[in-house]
Amino acid sequence: MVGYSLLLIVILSLVAYYVGRGSARRFAGGAGSDKVHSLPGYHGAFIAVWVGIPAFVLVVLWASFQGAMLDNLVISSLPQAFTDGKSPAELNLALSEIRNLASGRIFGEPAPEIRAAAERLLAWQHIASWAMVVVAAALMILVLVFARTRIAPRFRARNNVERVLSALMVFCSVVAILTTVGIIVSLLYESIAFFRLVPIHEFLFGLKWEPQIAIRADQVAGAGAFGAVPVFAGTLLISAIALIVAIPIGLFTAIYLVEYADDRVRNVVKPIMEILAGIPTVVFGFFAVLTVAPAIREAGGLMGIATSPNSALAAGFVMGIMIIPFISSLSDDALRSVPRAMRDGSLAMGATASETMTKVLLPAALPGIMGGILLAASRAIGETMIVVMAAGLIATLTINPMDSVTTVTVQIVSMLIGDTSFDSPKTLAAFALGLVLFIVTLGLNILALQIVKKYREQYE
Amino acid sequence: MSETALTGPVDWTSDQAAGRRRSRHAANRRLQFYGIAAISTAVGLLGILIATLVIGGYPAFFQTKLTIDFPIKAEYVDAADPAAGNYRNVVRDALRELAPEATTPAQQRQLGQLLTNNAQFFVRDAVVANPSVIGRTLTLTLPAADPIDQLNKGLIDRDLPESQRRVNDLQLGYYDTLVAGGRVSAPFNWALFFNSDSRFPELAGLAGAITGSFYALLICFLISFPVGIAAAIYLEEFAPRNRWTYLIEVNINNLAAVPSIVFGLLGLAVFIQIFGIPRSAPLAGGMVLALMTLPTMIIVTRNALKAVPPSIREGALGVGASKHQVIMHHVLPLALPGILTGTIIGLAQALGETAPLLLVGMNAFITSPPGGILEASTALPTQIFIWADSPERGFTSRTSAGILVLLGFLIVMNGIAIFLRQRLERRW
Asked: What does the longest C-alpha to C-alpha distance in chain B come to?
């Protein structure tokens, strides 16, 4: 129905455009046409915009809230005898059973009340969908007729259309802000709910992480502990391994490309780095599980080191491969933005290429390179798929790279995959971890951008 | 330092000077060597990555099939209602005919495991489509079960002791009989593209995942393309330089660096919990991807707008166009190739995103392609993730094959972007 409504909006807007343009043309060609303010097309666009946009907003809002409204209606329509003595959770269960029944998925033998409610829901859904189409159509026709009366030679249709367009553009640029606000509010909201169940100091400083708690009262499970320090430590360990792999490779690649490589080499190496940067992370994850982890395990076995099958080293190493292009391109930029005069001066004094690099270019580019490394670190901390596939699930507090550790992102995914109920501390803990992740990565990014910006200003 | 330099003329021809020079040049060569070593390591790792995927995924593009004669006996299949026949027995009898030496129930069970588990449904569908075969013999070429597939591709070592082999000696004997009878073939595996997910590796395909990814990308494009362009035009052409626009710009830059999983949390908490979009629906996945792609869209559009020379704007303004007309009629059309290039690259990034789709539930087990944007589905990267987690050996090569398909899409998209850039973009 939403699809049909949107189609209807498009068709009626087109009709409105031609109606408006047609009536504007009638006076445009005639006597005194030099007094017409706007081109006929703008008169058409004026009507089309006012016909289309309100109806579009109406349909989107209607579609977003129809479900919730009907749910409430269905709940309140259930007979008193059926709802008496039922907790909200049980009512929710009944509601989802009604919804399943209404969409044709029958499990077992539904109660007669449920069956009746499902039929009511179906009928209401039918009515509501049609009502949406009818109301939208009526609104559009009403606006069309009204706007049509505004068309006149002196009417400033262009200015009107341009104002609407400007407003739309402002709205679109605010979407980015709304996204950030949405992220912060949703993370904070669920995290506060979590900190009501688990004190914040216990979460931030506790040393034991055992989120596998009982969801129902009769389940056998651990008591649950939400001390996130082992999770943070695991994240840092894997990110540190990644940086140890990526920084030398990325930095030396950049040094070679800036100082030694000719165009031929550069034209080959740069696209290869871009390919490496464009590979989806799930591919790296599979590579880690299938190739790197067994190889590391075998190597560990040969050297007599006990190696876990999902060692931190495997995940960190592959993550390091992933961020090589990141570090190399950012270092490349930083080295290249050192003024050419400094480089030429050094070479003119008889310094070798390596002396120019280590004594002039690197110190000058150091802030930019540091900024790049911080960005790479934030990338590593927030990276998900590699660690979900290659790192472990159990939080151990260790710095042995051959051990299995877990990370913030692994915990978020493992706690939210599958069915989630939003009142269990297990689910809410994922949002608390997400909040920490968001704050840390945001902090690193802002810091990195500040460093890079400050350094740029020095030379400009 | 200046004092030592002034102590007297330096003898540049002395041995010490030559030694110093040599060591300085050695240091230079060392640095150069480190650079070459670093680049070779990176290139080598990429090579290993791609080689393992190609070697691992190549076999999955072919599927071992067995050609078997099924006698459709009237006692099992009623011509009046062919869909309700006892096709289990049809398949069992057909296999027994092939290997009459299998007499004990245990042997017959082993024999039955040669064919895919769903063989009876293939036979049923063929009979329903053509009921005239009832009473005659129907010859079908059906997928072999995963272990036989692996055996036929040489991935199972025949010389291993039976206890360590996934195909036992009995099955090996039956398989050899079939090979001798010319009944084993390995054609191109179209099922990989036309089947949806399945619990059986020999039947699992990517159709559902590709459709899901298509819907999600469509939603992502429909939202992020117009919103991104509108936002970029506003910020680049209209916005006054004040704190408010500075805030928006900083915000967009930071949004581009927020970990993708955080967008997944947003999608779960807002789109699914508050808006009530069904879990696993491509609509929810597409909306999350749209929010992630938006910063990229805005940044590339702004760069494309910046690249249009000011003389175009001034010329149009000079002949009396309004600011809106300048942008809509002149600047935007000239910037469009650049915007399109950036859009395709942004969509390619979105196609490879996995983590946010996991959180909105697009990793469900779905055995048919989604019929719309509200039906549960998977996407290409999440399908790869699901297969990578499956214990069956057959899924390992399917995973590699799925990755190759995904990389193929990415290469095509980036190729189109590069082509567009070279053909359409104007250099001023």
From this structure: 115
